[in-house]
Write a sequence for this structure.
């Protein structure tokens, strides 16, 4: 205790020398702790992002296959197509309708992979609802006669609506991502899908314009069929509003035109019936545990689909990389900075203590001559070193709180600049241009009618004080203090008072 | 962990018999340049209350002998008995010896410059775990005895004059009430008037307190106060 007091007194009584050391340490430790704070923030934010991005994938018809199918169909005349259909058996007709769809067996089999946490199956189809007019679509059809004729040829009329089917209404992506919100009634359930209950969710404006309320029925027609037997009565179990459309219309975006804004949501089995494609889905949608297992899932999918390139497994890994790559780069840079600053701090404390102890050699000799034990002298100097380091690290911690966010932003902006250049280079290629043309959104981003390449989440670094920082700060304090103590310990143990006191 | 408090009461040896007996002490320093026999078969005795002065030129081995007596150097051979106890024997607690039985006074004072006069005097007591209040009381008493007033007591050691520093150094040497005072050129860094004052104090410590004061110096004017005087040359001691 007395040695502690003597050490503290010695710290107070050598203000100038100690202040210089404290200041030098303060600068290095501020940089060191800031880099550590940035590193911890980058790591924790990468982990946080991992929890919600990069862990989504879907199985769907591959872009290449879709393109080739489109090219093949474009080359045929209307008469040729009609002739082909007339000559088809029922199985061939189903195969034709489902040529860009995915067999449910494939989607179900993949869902049993050990990394898959949740999955859904989705099918969107154009369905005729004779009693209701699609205002958005009819205004588009009115735009030009050519378009109207083209549309009519493909079976699209002002009574055509998009029907989206999945296994559970509440888990439809637009309800999950908040772009649509149920305002009346309830969602259809998994049981509705299993039992093929004819229920449906209707958009609010459409319901208002047509006087539809929860409990009412709307009549839809099975694709390609006619007459009474083709009609399916659907009970309206819920009404939703489109939040995203409101937001986009406020921005004056192109997305204000959204024919899917007033789409119907129904159980997958019902939409399969209406589309006459039982056993087929547009895509299988999966959430798995982590982006870290993306490659394994890709391999599992490649094994399941065999040599065919008809289906593809796409994930949102690119979205994850968009965020994680800059953060990982910042993390690496800050780790190097942290190591350098820590090394500089260690060097400073070693040199400072060598200078301090060297300058007080005579004092050490006197202390030993008047009966101080080595332990007493070492403890006194250890306390002095500890005080120096403690003040430096306390000041550095405060300064870190002020500057670490700035340092983090600066590092992040550096890493993002690199990314922009890379993207620019990519964009100039023909392959990139084609890729963009064929780019399709993931279902989790809103599906068919959301804008491809819309607003993506970007890397952000929030350098906030973490509990771990305190623990690391204490470790650094102990580390550099122990290092600083090594000099007096070595010096004092070797010191012979008779030699020191003989010096003039 | 609290340090054990040591008894710093009057450590003076009993009446009768030599307080300090030095028998055939030698010390050789070895270096690349060769061997130097700094102390060569030195023997003498000193009684309680005596002033013993050893004079000799620089490099004659006076300071080495003093450091051997203060246990700062270990002799190659010989015995040093303090109140009959051989301090060169194995197992002797030399730290306790330095704390309680000898007090050092140096030519260059060797005060801790960052501390006040009072703190310098209290330092040996602090190392011996004397309670703070007792440290202060005794330090003040010793400094007043040395003629250091209250204001100077609170002054940092580096701001004191040479004479004041040496008086503070004497007070520090007395802090744990040692039997033996070892003074190495105590007037070597002082003017003659101040040096005279310091010598008077050292003589009083022997005469009034009954301590054994051993002074090594090249200043032969001090010989006048000596009860016993020796001359040292080339490590050998001879009576004067």
């Amino acid at each position: 205790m007395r040695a502690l007091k003597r050490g503290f007194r010695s710290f107070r009584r050598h203000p100038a020398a100690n202040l210089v050391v404290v200041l030098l340490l303060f600068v290095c430790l501020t940089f060191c702790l800031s880099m550590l704070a940035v590193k911890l923030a980058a790591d924790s934010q990468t982990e946080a992002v991992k929890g919600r991005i990069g862990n989504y994938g879907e199985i769907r018809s591959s872009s290449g296959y879709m393109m080739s199918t489109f090219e093949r169909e474009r080359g045929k005349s209307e008469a040729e197509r009609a002739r082909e259909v007339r000559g088809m058996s029922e199985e061939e007709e189903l195969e034709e309708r489902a040529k860009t769809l995915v067999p449910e067996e494939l989607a179900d089999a993949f869902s049993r992979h050990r990394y898959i946490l949740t999955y859904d199956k989705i099918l969107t189809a154009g369905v005729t609802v004779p009693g209701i007019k699609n205002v958005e679509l009819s205004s588009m059809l009115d735009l030009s006669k050519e378009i109207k004729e083209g549309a009519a040829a493909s079976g699209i009329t002002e009574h055509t609506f998009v029907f989206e089917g999945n296994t559970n209404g509440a888990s439809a992506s637009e309800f999950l991502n908040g772009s649509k919100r149920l305002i009346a009634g309830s969602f259809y359930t998994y049981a509705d899908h299993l039992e093929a209950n004819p229920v449906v969710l209707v958009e609010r404006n459409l319901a208002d314009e047509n006087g539809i309320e929860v409990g009412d029925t709307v009549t839809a027609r099975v694709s390609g069929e006619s007459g009474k037997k083709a009609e399916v009565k659907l009970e309206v179990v819920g009404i939703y509003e489109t939040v995203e459309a409101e937001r986009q219309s406020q921005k004056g975006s192109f997305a204000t035109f959204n024919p899917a804004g007033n789409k119907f949501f129904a159980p997958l089995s019902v939409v399969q019936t209406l589309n006459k494609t039982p056993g087929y889905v547009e895509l299988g949608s999966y959430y798995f545990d982590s982006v870290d297992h993306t490659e394994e899932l890709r391999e599992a999918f490649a094994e399941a689909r065999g040599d065919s390139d008809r289906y593809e497994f796409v994930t949102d890994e690119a979205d994850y990389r968009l965020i994680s790559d800059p953060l990982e780069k910042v993390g690496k840079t800050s780790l190097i900075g942290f190591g350098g600053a820590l090394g500089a701090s260690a060097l400073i404390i070693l040199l400072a203590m060598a200078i301090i102890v060297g300058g007080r050699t005579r004092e050490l000799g006197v202390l030993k001559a008047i009966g101080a034990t080595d332990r007493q002298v070492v403890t006194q100097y250890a306390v002095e070193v500890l005080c120096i380091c403690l003040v430096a690290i306390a000041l550095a911690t405060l300064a870190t709180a002020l500057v670490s966010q700035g340092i983090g932003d600066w590092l992040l902006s550096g890493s993002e600049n690199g990314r922009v250049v890379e993207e620019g280079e990519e964009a100039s290629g023909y392959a990139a241009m084609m890729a963009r043309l064929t780019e399709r959104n993931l279902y989790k981003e809103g599906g068919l009618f959301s804008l491809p390449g819309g607003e993506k989440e970007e890397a952000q670094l929030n350098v906030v004080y973490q509990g771990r920082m305190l623990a690391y700060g204490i470790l650094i304090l102990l580390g550099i203090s122990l290092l600083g103590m090594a000099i007096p310990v070595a010096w004092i143990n070797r010191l012979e008072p008779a030699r020191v006191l003989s010096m003039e | 962990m609290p340090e054990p408090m040591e008894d710093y009461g009057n450590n003076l040896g009993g009446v009768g018999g030599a307080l300090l007996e030095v028998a055939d002490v030698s010390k050789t320093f070895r270096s690349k340049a060769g061997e130097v026999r700094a102390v060569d078969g030195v023997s003498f005795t000193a009684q309680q209350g005596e002033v013993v002065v050893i004079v000799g030129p620089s490099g004659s081995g006076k300071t080495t002998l003093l450091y051997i007596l203060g246990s700062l150097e270990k002799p190659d051979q010989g015995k040093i008995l303090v109140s009959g106890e051989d301090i060169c024997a194995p197992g002797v607690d030399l730290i306790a010896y330095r704390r309680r039985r000898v007090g050092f006074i140096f030519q260059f004072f060797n005060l801790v410059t960052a501390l006040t006069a009072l703190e310098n005097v209290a330092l040996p007591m602090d190392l011996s775990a004397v309670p703070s209040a007792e440290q202060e009381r005794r330090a003040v008493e010793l400094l007043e005895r040395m003629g250091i007033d209250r204001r100077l007591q609170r002054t940092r050691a580096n701001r004191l004059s040479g004479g004041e520093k040496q008086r503070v150094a004497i007070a520090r040497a007395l802090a744990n009430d040692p039997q033996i005072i070892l003074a190495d050129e105590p007037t070597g860094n002082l003017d003659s008037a101040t040096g005279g004052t310091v010598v008077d104090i050292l003589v009083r410590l022997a005469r009034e307190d009954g301590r054994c004061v051993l002074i090594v110096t090249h200043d032969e004017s001090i010989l006048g106060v000596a009860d016993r005087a020796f001359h040292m040359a080339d490590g050998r001691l001879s009576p004067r």
User: Anything to note?
Assistant: The interface with chain B takes residues 1-3, 6, 9-10, 13-14, 362-363, 365-373, 376, 496-498, 501-502, 504 of chain A (CB under 8 Å). The longest helix of chain A spans residues 374-427.
